[in-house]
Specification:
The complex is a heterodimer of chains A (about 290) and B (about 170).
Chain A: E1 7-9, H1 14-24, E2 28-31, H2 37-42, E3 50-53, E4 63-65, E5 71-74, H3 79-84, H4 86-91, H5 93-98, H6 105-108, H7 113-119, H8 125-132, E6 136-141, E7 144-149, H9 150-153, E8 154-156, E9 159-160, E10 167-173, E11 180-187, E12 197-205, E13 211-219, E14 226-227, H10 229-235, H11 242-256, H12 267-290
Parallel strand pairs in A: 1-3, 2-3
Antiparallel strand pairs in A: 4-5, 5-10, 6-7, 6-10, 8-9, 11-12, 12-13, 13-14
Chain B: E1 2-9, E2 12-19, H1 24-31, E3 50-53, E4 56-59, E5 72-74, H2 94-101, H3 111-124, H4 130-136, H5 148-168
Parallel strand pairs in B: 1-5
Antiparallel strand pairs in B: 1-2, 3-4, 3-5
Classes of the chains: A alpha+beta (about 290), B alpha+beta (about 170).
Chain lengths: ~290, ~170
């Protein structure tokens, strides 16, 4: 298995990279960590004519806290860096909890947050977590920049709002309000394998301890991040209890998702995992919210 | 289109001209003759081709050789830089000694990848629990041992490295 021939460019500035993308359009592919792109090239599922290596562009890897409490992460920040970063642990604990689930350490040493988000693999953890966190993405092209909410960015199987001329350059994560809790969990055959099902949960309580808002976003059950909106609506205004969580998990697993069968799991098993994971993550999220 | 790259592997500087599509794993084996790095799946699943890039474990089948221009690599050959015909098993790296002692390999195909994964892991985590060891090796496939011998080997390797540390201070 060897990749088809391609032209390799390693621009040293973002302007040069954007100019290459503008010039070559669909024929050019940006290379971030390459941990998904290179295997697909090895299989010749992808045969880009031009590879634009982003690894030599300074200023695309950073994690900093904005004055408004938003966390700003440069798209070329590697998974291992995000995983070990104290600002992320403190200001985006859901992301922090998710990172060790992403592939293996060898992959996390190389893979980038922006690469994973832009690749839009339906079994990837980060897209669902970004949607749950109401993250915003900064997309840049030669003609300017625009912001897209994570929920609007994902449009289908490996399909996003990005045009071939654009690069995802920054991810911004707003802080969660007071009395909120979070949890991420997934089930995979081995740690680091593609999850058969995974879910990110966020809950926000009102002053009386009732659920004001809930977000439950699955991975590996559809063509991209799947928000369990009916389950979330069923939690609104309610006092969390084990019975309620069981009912809500049932709604999520039967009404909100429509998983397909593949060699890793049957559709029925995926629903069962979705049910169990919803209960587990919501229970943990409510516990954390109450403890705040 | 070819590219000239400069790369340091196991302390030796090399300059080679490569095609852009040449995978780093093939560059090491075919262009540099360092066949200790094994190529299993070529899709990032098996971990046999794991090497160190600037000290961090990476899959060499998921990088192009042209990408490591200016960087420093360590392959399994770098664990025993002074190895020659007169060497004995006592001259092996402590992790290799532990794998030999505890039956951490049978056919040996996956072993270079395990060793290179464990070098940074044990440096970061000198006294790991069994759970941490199993997490650390989850990105490396072995189809012979059932992992029991490997886990035992990692425990012994950690012990040997800690003793080494005490000796050298």
């Amino acid at each position: 298995m060897k990749p088809a021939p391609f032209q390799y460019h390693a621009p040293h500035s973002l302007a040069d990279a954007l100019s290459l993308l503008a010039e070559h359009g669909y024929d050019a592919k940006p290379l971030a960590g390459g941990q998904s792109l290179v295997p697909t090239m090895n299989f010749r599922l992808a045969q880009p004519g031009i590879l634009v290596d982003l690894n030599h562009i300074p200023g695309l890897a950073y994690i900093r806290l904005g004055s408004d409490g938003d966390l700003h992460i440069g798209a070329m920040t590697r998974h291992s860096t995000v995983e070990q970063d104290l600002l992320v642990a403190q200001h985006a604990p859901l992301l922090h909890e998710t990172m060790p689930h992403i592939a293996h350490r060898q992959i996390r040493n190389r893979g980038t947050i922006g690469g994973s988000l832009a690749h839009a693999d339906p079994s990837a953890e980060l897209p669902s977590v970004a949607v749950a966190l109401h993250a915003r993405f900064r997309l840049q092209s030669q003609t300017g920049e625009r912001w897209v909410a994570a929920a609007d960015f994902y449009q289908g199987l490996f399909t996003t709002d990005l045009t071939p001329e654009e690069l995802l350059v920054e991810i911004v994560i707003p802080p969660l309000p007071a009395r909120s809790g979070y949890a991420f969990d997934e089930v995979a055959r081995r740690p680091g394998d593609y999850a058969m099902v995974g879910v990110a949960a966020i809950v926000i309580l009102d002053a009386a301890g009732r659920c004001e808002e809930a977000r439950l976003v699955y991975l590996s059950v559809g063509e991209g991040p799947v928000s369990a909106t009916q389950a979330a609506a069923a939690l609104k205004g309610r006092q969390p209890s084990p019975d309620l969580l069981a009912q809500v998990a049932e709604i999520a697993a039967t009404d909100d998702i429509d998983p397909v069968a593949d060699i890793h799991a049957s559709a029925a098993y995926r629903r069962q995992l979705a049910r169990v994971l919803a209960q587990r993550t919501l229970a943990r999220a409510f516990e954390r919210a109450a403890g705040q | 289109m070819t590219h000239t790259i400069n790369v340091t592997v196991n302390g030796t500087a090399y300059q080679r001209t490569v095609e852009a599509r040449l995978l780093l794993s093939d560059f090491l084996r075919h262009d540099l003759g360092l066949t200790g790095t094994h190529v299993g799946c070529e899709q990032g699943s098996c971990g046999a081709c794991t090497i160190l890039l600037d000290g961090e474990a990476v899959r060499s089948c998921l990088l192009f050789a042209v990408q490591v221009d200016g960087h420093e690599l360590t392959t399994v050959e770098g664990l025993t830089p002074d190895w020659d015909m007169a060497s004995t098993h006592e001259d092996l790296h402590p992790i290799q000694i532990a794998f030999r002692e505890k039956h951490g390999l049978q056919c040996g195909f996956c072993t270079p990848g395990f060793l290179m994964t464990l070098v940074p892991f044990l440096a970061e985590n000198p006294d790991p629990t069994e759970h941490e060891i199993r997490q650390a090796i989850s990105g490396n496939l072995c189809r012979c041992t059932g992992y029991v011998g490997i886990v035992e080997a990692v425990k012994l390797a950690a012990e040997l490295l800690r003793e080494d540390d005490k000796v050298t201070g």
